[in-house]
Amino acid sequence: MLEIKDVDVYYGDLRALTEVSLTVNKGEIVTLIGSNGAGKSTTLRTICGFLRPASGVVRFSGQSLVTHAVHRIAEMGISMVTEEKRVFRDMTVFENLRLGAFMGKARKRKDETLDWVYKMSPVLQERSRQKAGTLSGGEQQMLLVGRALMSQPELLLLDEISFGLSPLLVKNLFKTIKEIHMSTGMTILLVEQNVHMALELADRAYVMESGAVVAEGQAADFLSSKQIKDAYFGVTTEECR
Ligand SMILES: Nc1ncnc2c1ncn2[C@@H]1O[C@H](COP(=O)(O)OP(=O)(O)OP(=O)(O)O)[C@@H](O)[C@H]1O
Ligand SMILES: [Mg+2]
Fold it and tell me: Which of the ligands is closest to the CA of residue 212?
């Protein structure tokens, strides 16, 4: 479904990605693992069209994305949530969510999706008439995920969406993502600080270092790899278990 091949991306003179290749098959959950600055967010931004590769191929359902505008890529069914994104502060929670479902296909299933979102985060239902700008940081984060889900994307890109959320919210969030994935088959490419959780959710994983992919494999194999554990599992994950 998504194919990235030999992609180089620069920020000015800085080469941020070097010959990155990866694929995400329809219905899969794939995670990108890597230290700070490894190029994970850059990869996701390139898929969405915020960055243009200097060379290489980015294809979605067989179509090249590299010349498409950001909004066109979104229309093709790719939706991204990052911790940098913002809610529409002066609109209510419900209005924010409804905006997520404005495109044709999503509109048809919007009531069903709204039920999912409210189940995932009852607080959004409780606050549905409240202005989004008055929600807490964590609640706004949940709203962003909810809004992306409302668009029923074919490919959902998640970049550290658990940032700043309480452990309980993170757990709910991951549980709901799994449920939605199982019921709709939504394809997901995920970057997550909690590598342990990401690997438990994912089918496959790629490891990035200094802008390049250095390993790939089944998530289950990485979960039991001491090397991966030592390098990427935070102290907190160990403490939580
Ligand atoms: N807007 C930018 N301008 C210049 N350099 C950037 C920019 N954004 C990222 N970089 C650089 O590109 C490299 C890759 O950054 P990227 O944000 O993709 O890493 P990351 O894997 O997402 O890291 P993190 O886990 O910290 O989010 C880093 O060296 C970073 O400093
Ligand atoms: Mg990042």
Answer: 1
Distance CA 70, CA 65 (A): 9
pLDDT exceeds 60 at position 75: yes
Percent of the chain with pLDDT over 90: 59
Residue at 217: amino acid letter = G
Question: pLDDT band at 230, cuts 50/70/90?
Answer: confident
Q: Could you tell me the domains of the chain?
A: 2-77+154-240 (3.40.50.300), 86-152 (no CATH)
Residue 45 has a pLDDT of 96
Per DSSP, what are the bridge partners of residue 9?
A: 17
Report CA torsion sign: 86, 182, 171, 160.
negative
Atom 27 of ligand 1, residue of closest alpha carbon: 36
Task: Tell which residue, 201, 206, 208, has the closest CA to residue 174.
Answer: 201
Per-residue model confidence as pLDDT tens digits over 119-131: 877 889 999 999 9
User: What is the residue type of 31?
Assistant: T
83/163 Cα distance (integer angstroms): 7
User: And the tokens for 186?
Assistant: 């939504």
Residues 6+ apart with CB under 8 A from 31: 189, 190, 191, 192, 195, 198, 199, 201, 202, 204, 205, 206, 219
Pocket test for ligand 1, best of 42, 190, 207 (most atoms within 8 A of CB): 42
Pocket of ligand 1 (CB under 6 A): 11, 14, 16, 34, 36-42
